[in-house]
Design goal:
With 825 residues, this protein is α+β, with helices and mostly antiparallel strands. Helices cover 49% and strands 15% of the residues. The protein has 24 helices and 22 strands. Strands 1, 2, 3, 4, 5, 6, 7, 8, 9, 10 and 11 form an eleven-stranded mixed β-sheet that branches. Strands 14, 15, 16, 17, 18, 19 and 20 form a seven-stranded mixed β-sheet that branches. The chain has a four-stranded antiparallel β-sheet with strand order 13-21-12-22.
């Protein structure tokens, strides 16, 4: 222990004596290790850390999937919701699950500090909390009988909402609170640290289902999770669910062929993997990118250590000559390097913390489990372990040099020429070649992501987002019990808000583009005969008020949009988009044709009792989930609001001025109609589009930042190795100058040496970009992994920066005084 303390003190003194080395190496390590600490904290919290529930490895989530009839590629139909009958069947007839539960995200209207507000909540089956192993901190969770109609007006509060509304008073359990204008009994309060998927959930209501709902197969609107039995496997559970689906299809012979053609099945996924399936690739890609930055930084530090150890060769040789043991000196050097990297690691923790704060502005809060992201003890241990590993690896360089040191050679040649072995020079050049290669790969990745992002931004969404403000309303059954009440409110709202200064148009819809809601449903065209094996289509379904297409700038291609004729007493009508029109009427005869929807799952192909709707218009396709997601591949259709009134509405307000300037006046107008009705999720349409781009923008910006750091480190590495080589060759260059070599020739020689290093790095990096393309391909849109414009631009940029770094050492070589150089020892 005394020897270790002595080595630590000696290492600290030696580092403090060489402050330029300490500052340069320490700053490089802090930046590189800090960047890794930031990304690892995100990866660990989102992907690696087990869910904070008992035995999370037994939790699975299941979906009803209809891939052959999916409406939105990559979302929804491959991971579709479940039906109420599925919940009861799978819970009662499968012995693979210890428990099974359903839940649905929703919003609840309640009054907070005298103001109506909409809070995020979930409707959950009573089995939800026991499945997660969660108990209430105050009171209790739901009982099984509260999952029945008539007993379900009960609610469990989050800890935060409980404190906000009731100041943390435990006596509120058993009290009544008004939610959506109806009385609910508070039965419990959850612990402060209870979170399931969405940290914004503030209350839970008991879900109950009518006898009709329990028979409506493939009417899907519920998420389903299950806990496997201790001896069950997900493969056996999958087999049992498949068998149950097959048995249910046999009970519905008219529906079975359609389900088979649609590819219906119910895949099971482990919950932790499923939560991050669409973001895990991006996060691992970022982790790999920041790993490259670390490698480049570590190479720079290794180069600095190599220069320093070479400069100290004579000092160390003298110590050996005086009797010092090589092992003892090697241990001191090892301690010195490890102290340096640990100091860099400690500074990196600070950089990592700052990085996490910066990521907040880039949309990190939209990631799954975002509330758990932080620089926890695992991240601290990883960071310091990384620093220790770098220290051990880098310390091998001076240690290996030390053990092979020839004392007679040092005293005979080193002092005279200042030269070092060919192996040391080759090693330094090789490390810089690797730096250039890594920098090229990072720059190409960043360039491809930037080019891809540019392509996404150039996508036409099919509507005009400028000058559009959006907000959501939910009309409660207690206040608006009949369809006529809903229609009256909507008419009044549009009339009042349209009269406000600055408002150009007002309309309502049930599915705003880039919003939180999504609905699709099977529909048929009269007289259309599908091909054998052709799946039924389930297009996006929307309900809109007159003026919606005009307010949103959606082009009406043929026919008309909805107007005052389309009332509850009028002819039932429908508007379809061009994709749906081309599918059912490829000859362009959509107008005047009729469509119908099944009245039940059992009569899915029977139109005897269906209501027929006349096609009165065809509109342009629009993007609804993301600019890069593409329009619905099965199209969309629109109902007239007064013929199909709904309680949940997204309202569109258009203006020629600043959209957010309308918020206060719009809220006031709504309050004058219904003071208890909150307008929530208020955002401009451009803000919605921007939010949809977070998963592309954040990786692009981070990779670009990593690339800039890598480029600078590579430039520093090139400069350093050439400056070092010029220093070692000072005597040689002096002799050449004395013998008549001109300055341009000296300049060309040094610059050529640098150019060879850069060329080797570019060549090695070019091979690496081919491998990189395989990993980054899924992150690109409209850009090839070998895009010649990106590759050419990046290679040129790196080459220019690298050659600029070569100029200073080359110019310094031309100014060497031959007399001074020859006079050196």
């Amino acid at each position: 222990m005394d020897a270790l303390i002595h080595d630590l003190r000696f290492a600290a003194r030696q580092l403090w004596k060489d402050k330029p080395f300490l500052a340069t190496a320490g700053l490089t390590l802090a930046l590189c290790i800090g960047a890794n600490a930031t990304i690892f904290s995100v990866v660990n919290s989102v992907l690696l850390k087990p869910l904070d529930v008992p035995e999370p490895e037994r939790l699975v989530r299941m979906y009803n999937a209809y891939p052959a009839a999916m409406a939105n590629p990559g979302s929804g139909r491959l991971r579709g919701s479940n039906g109420v009958p599925d919940y009861y069947d799978r819970r009662a007839l499968s012995d693979m699950f210890a428990e099974l539960a359903v839940y649905s995200a929703t919003g609840f209207s309640l009054e907070i500090e005298g103001t109506p507000q909409r809070v995020t909540g979930q409707e959950v089956s009573p089995s939800f909390f026991p499945l997660l192993g969660a108990s209430a901190a105050v009171g209790r969770t739901f009982t099984e009988d509260e999952g029945e109609i008539g007993n379900n007006k009960v609610v469990v509060l989050s800890h935060g909402l409980w404190r906000e509304l009731y100041g943390g008073d435990p006596s509120v359990v058993g009290n009544t609170m008004r939610i959506d204008a109806e009385p609910f009994v508070i039965v419990g309060v959850m612990p402060q640290d209870f979170v399931f998927i969405n940290p914004d959930v503030r209350l839970w209501a008991a879900a109950a289902f009518t006898p009709q709902q329990r028979q409506q197969y493939h009417s899907n609107s519920w998420q389903m999770i299950a806990r496997l039995q201790p001896d069950a496997t997900i493969e056996r559970a999958q087999e049992q669910i498949d068998a149950l689906n097959a048995a249910n299809m046999d009970k519905m012979p008219s529906l079975k062929p359609l389900l088979i053609d649609a590819g219906f099945h119910t895949p099971l996924y482990f919950l932790q993997e499923d939560l991050t399936f669409d973001i895990s690739g991006t996060l691992y890609l970022l982790w790999g990118g920041v790993g490259f930055v670390l490698l480049i930084g570590a190479v720079n530090v290794a180069n600095l250590v190599l220069v320093r150890s070479t400069a100290r060769t004579r000092e160390l040789a003298t110590r050996f000559a005086l009797g010092a043991r090589r092992g003892r000196v090697a241990r001191q050097l090892l301690t010195e390097i490890i102290v340096l990297t640990l100091v860099g690691g400690a500074a990196g923790l600070g950089v990592g913390w700052l990085g996490l704060q910066a990521l907040t502005s880039l949309g990190i809060d939209q990631l799954p489990r975002s509330g758990e992201i932080g620089l926890d003890m695992t991240a601290v241990a990883f960071t310091m372990g990384l620093a220790l590993l770098i220290g051990c690896v880098v310390a091998l360089i001076p240690a290996a040099t030390l053990l092979r040191l020839d004392l007679s050679s040092v005293f005979r040649e080193e002092g005279r020429s200042g030269t070092a072995g060919r192996g040391v020079r080759t090693l330094r050049k090789g490390m810089v070649v690797a730096q250039v290669a890594f920098a090229l790969m990072l720059l190409v990745g960043a360039g491809l992501l930037m080019a891809s992002f540019r392509e996404v931004l150039n996508v036409d969404p099919g509507f005009e987002p400028r000058g559009v403000l959006t907000g959501s309303l939910t009309l409660t059954a207690a206040t608006y019990p009949e369809d006529g009440d809903l229609v009256t409110f909507t008419r009044t709202l549009i009339e009042r808000v349209s009269a406000l200064p600055g408002v150009d148009a007002v309309a309502a819809t049930t599915q705003i583009p880039f919003g939180n809601s999504s609905n699709d449903s099977v529909i048929f065209a009269e007289g259309y005969v599908p091909e054998p094996g052709e799946a039924v289509v389930s297009p996006l379904q929307n309900v809109v008020t007159p003026g919606y297409f005009e307010a949103m700038g959606i082009e009406v291609l043929r026919g008309r949009s909805f107007d005052s004729r389309d009332t509850a007493d009028g002819q039932p009508v429908i508007v379809v988009d061009e994709q749906l029109a081309d599918r059912f009427w490829p000859d362009g005869s959509a107008l005047g044709s009729r469509m119908w929807m099944p009245t039940s799952v059992e009569d899915v192909t029977n139109s005897d009792n269906a209501t027929f709707l006349e096609v009165v218009g065809v509109v342009a396709r629009i993007r609804t989930r993301g600019l890069d997601a593409g329009p619905s591949n099965t199209g969309a259709y629109y109902f007239a609001y007064e013929q199909s009134a709904r309680r949940s509405l997204d309202v569109v307000f258009t203006t020629s001025g600043e959209p957010r300037a309308l918020i206060a006046s719009v809220r006031q107008a709504i309050a004058e109609i219904d003071r208890d009705l909150p307008l929530f999720d208020v955002r401009t349409m451009q803000e919605r589009i921007d939010a949809s781009l977070v998963n592309r923008r954040t990786p692009m910006l981070l990779t670009a930042g990593f690339s800039v750091v890598a480029l600078l480190l590579a430039a520093v590495g090139i400069y350093g190795v050439l400056a070092y080589l010029v220093q070692l060759r000072t005597r040689e260059i002096g002799i050449r100058v004395a013998l008549g070599s001109a300055a341009p020739a000296i300049f060309k020689t040094v610059l050529g040496e640098g150019a060879l290093i850069v060329a080797a790095g570019l060549l090695l990096g070019a091979g690496g970009t081919v491998l990189l393309g395989r990993f980054i391909e899924t992150q690109l849109y409209g850009v090839s992994t070998m895009d010649p414009a990106v590759l050419g631009l990046v290679a040129t940029l790196l080459a220019v920066v690298a050659m600029v770094a070569c100029l200073v050492p080359a110019r310094r070589a031309t100014r060497i005084d031959p007399v001074a150089a020859l006079a050196q020892d």
